[in-house]
């Protein structure tokens, strides 16, 4: 089996995989990074989104063996150095952008890329960008609000009612 | 998923050699191939990884032609094909951002999904598909559903798009897959108009020649009045009947023409 | 109100682990030496199993064990939890639902064999090596033909495809028929409540473990109600003694009903773990979710509304065929009956209601409760036919509803469908809706849309639902085979912090945050000193779990009652410490004091005393401070609401865009308004999904056409508008101690008719002769309706 080495969340990490091993499987089964979730088998739900070399990809649709030498960032590496929630994570909590939590890692990783390429997205741009991330719980309102807030834009306070 | 041999070549030459093996298949971004393999609906013996081959990646515009490397992602085309805005917009609306970060133009047109967007752009532009062995005009390239003129072992190394005077792509989403329920690409080169339709036909992407003739004579939405594609050849499924798709072809073609002017 | 008590929009503590990738869902567990299970599933909808030869599969690399239906002939079946009696007095038909199909396969995806191997890929390889001879038979798909009985049977042994033919209330049938016959106006509507796939984002998964040293079993599984699953497995399916089986439902990635039920895969991994002495794991693919999770809805209905000429309602009469699929899932029989028929008076003072429901077996996946469970079907039928009636009578849709609303001074109100509504104020909700949704401004917005070539429509809806299920004595009379109380144990630890063990399971609802708010409010302690324990049958009291918007109203009430008992006992301890009688002690904000004095003792000191009883009235009081309460509700709770939506229809393509969605709900007392807002928004998205996008479709051969996310359209962020939610128009639930009604399903109940009403309104205003479009109101259906 090929042995691959990736920089995962800032740490050089080696593991043996089969050619057919998906990145998502390698992360979850080999490296115990179970924050990356598998919600579908057609590459649509987005629960498995991670960053490969700085870009959001669906880790269920990439072979790990393709990624020798790559840099991979997952939800486990997103918090601040002191362990506190980063700006996006904190906004998701503040604006009730999650319920069951299953889509959440992928949502946070997609949101992170969105804010990298578009630091002040409009609501419509956020909704459009999240096309590849399905949430069955929130109706997306809390997620959209969280991303608006994380980008420093005004959103109605959830506590206003 | 069945296991397979993975070849990661460092050049197109190496890739071409690897593709000569029995049961070898090119691996682009894998955004269609991997889901198919997960369902055990495809069992390639060898995958030859093309994405990441630097000679296959790039978007270049020169003397009226936009050349895109076969392993260029949709995301890169969306960002860099400013010389051909209609094509950049088409690329920027394929799948979702994560898919666009992996999926490639070569992978898309080699697969020739009947609901994919790129075939409409390639055929509608009258582009030339470049392979490791030859050049194929778009009119000869798309043969049938999931079928192209590519020979065994042939690799799409790039696509050369003549840049039209005006062009527009109108996509009507299938609500679940977000592929095109119907997509229409209209491109105007001088007095010549090409209209390519994806998503609608059991035979894959096709040119709507009646519309082209009418638009050659008078490039306006009014020229399409009374024209309709024959629903008989079109796809009927739970998302829309053949009649509905035929209707959408008309609507989207009009809208594309309006957007051109 | 202390910080973080009842009514505070406290941020969720569970979010920290979910946001950092540290949630622990079933598939995240891989015990040492785990083996993997894969299932052989039927590719035909109806087939006779001539033989299943596992010999080649058993020889495949890594294979540890194989199973077929033969292996489970001696054990029980997965039971129906509710017995329905037909109009003629006959009990419903209950064919056995085996662990693995035996003799026949009855739907595409019906599992008939299983393989356990060292790795998942090896198990999948081995499944492909199974040699099964399955003779395809004609599939039973269309309900009308199934009931007519002309073709195949799903279950040969019951000699019919009709599970039951139920009337509610049968004694009202003749009077309702008479009233309709004599009425000056009758509106009739035939409609389909489309079949849905719940699609919780986490696919089902189960891990079976067996300890040969102790004989103990453990099942880690995606369940909304671990005790119920344990009961079903123990008492009906495998016969494992309950005390030897622990069911653990860790973090669960959404349920929406689909994870209430016991499924065969759970029994299989337990049986396999016993056989192998190794953990056995199975995780569904999304494809398996489509094929083998319980689906929802799937009613074909004819409803009639009889009125006076002025729009006063005289009678509702409903005839429904409800698809139960190939086997009876655990609550398949109550969903289309008592959770549907009893709501068919809606919010209205209508005197006559009669509902007939025929439940039909077909060669499709089992159908059971999905978010709303019967009430969305009831609300959709009522609110669509009312809209149609208003149009026929030339009345405004708000006016016709107001004219027939139960008024706020009429509570408690005995509805013509057999329920006693305890509280509500539908006019106040409608008043609020008119303001919040700016109904007066609709005309101007419509004109603006028209300028852009779009047809704009306004949809109005009023709903009532019954949740907080349910009084055990009542449901027992109606056929329930379980009680529907819930339970909580409040354990005050020696150092004064508190663990609360609850029967409800949280899989997105925020119990870990909301339940402590109740305890904190009552005890005057910091909510963060209270932790919730849920999901583990070895730790929690026997509660019935989470569904039917019941967690707060029923389990929360158990928490409330247990906390009351804590206060009583702590007061006695405090009295001893203060050297006075308990009746002279008062408890406020965490401090026990002798009335009228400044002599007091804090809650923490009392807790410590309870566990270090050196100086303690041991002859009068036991040590410890831990109390359990089982709460059995006196009635259902009755949330209600008024919703409005505006849509734009593209007249060229038929595409519907939702411009606004406003939901005003009365949930009674709200414990955490942030969580309630999220619950409603999530429900709205699912209801909008049903209305516009989602459809589970089988072809005539029983092949599932919408068997993946490529063809089953889930709502995405860009399908939805801003979801405006307001729950300030509240009337207290009169019969539970918190005063809460339940909010989990409201959005999914109220929104589908709102959307369809709006689309029909847009088309009618646009000059089209359209009175109904079935859901999902897809572009192609709208276009077809405009061009019929």
UniProtKB/TrEMBL annotation, chain A:
2Fe-2S ferredoxin-type domain ranges (all copies): 2-78
- One term of GO molecular function: anaerobic carbon-monoxide dehydrogenase activity
UniProt-listed InterPro entries: 2Fe-2S-bd, 2Fe-2S-bd_dom_sf, 2Fe-2S_ferredoxin-like_sf, 2Fe-2S_ferredoxin-type, Beta-grasp_dom_sf, Diverse_Oxidoreductases
Q: Which residues form a coiled coil?
A: none
Task: Determine the domain of life of the protein's source.
Answer: Bacteria
Keywords from the UniProt entry: 2Fe-2S, Iron, Iron-sulfur, Metal-binding, Oxidoreductase
The EC number(s) this enzyme carries: 1.2.7.4
Tell me what this protein is called. Answer: Carbon monoxide dehydrogenase small chain
What species was this sequence derived from? Octadecabacter ascidiaceicola
Q: Which gene encodes it?
A: coxS
TrEMBL record, chain B:
Molecular function terms from GO: anaerobic carbon-monoxide dehydrogenase activity; FAD binding
Would you say which domain of life the source belongs to? Bacteria
Keyword terms, alphabetized: FAD, Flavoprotein, Oxidoreductase
Listed EC numbers: 1.2.7.4
Where does the chain cross the membrane?
Answer: none
Q: Does the keyword Ubl conjugation apply?
A: no
Residue ranges annotated for the FAD-binding PCMH-type domain, each copy included: 1-166
**What Pfam families has UniProt attached to this entry?**
FAD_binding_5
Question: Mind telling me what this protein is named?
Answer: Carbon monoxide dehydrogenase medium chain
Gene (UniProt): cutM_1
UniProtKB/TrEMBL annotation, chain C:
Q: Name one GO molecular function term.
A: iron ion binding
Q: Which Pfam families match?
A: Ald_Xan_dh_C, MoCoBD_1, MoCoBD_2
Q: Where is the Aldehyde oxidase/xanthine dehydrogenase a/b hammerhead domain?
A: 20-138
Arranged from A to Z, the UniProt key words for this protein are:
Molybdenum, Oxidoreductase
Known EC number? 1.2.7.4
State if rRNA processing is listed as a keyword: no
Q: What class of enzyme is it?
A: oxidoreductase
Its name, as the record gives it, is Carbon monoxide dehydrogenase large chain
Q: Give the organism the record lists.
A: Octadecabacter ascidiaceicola
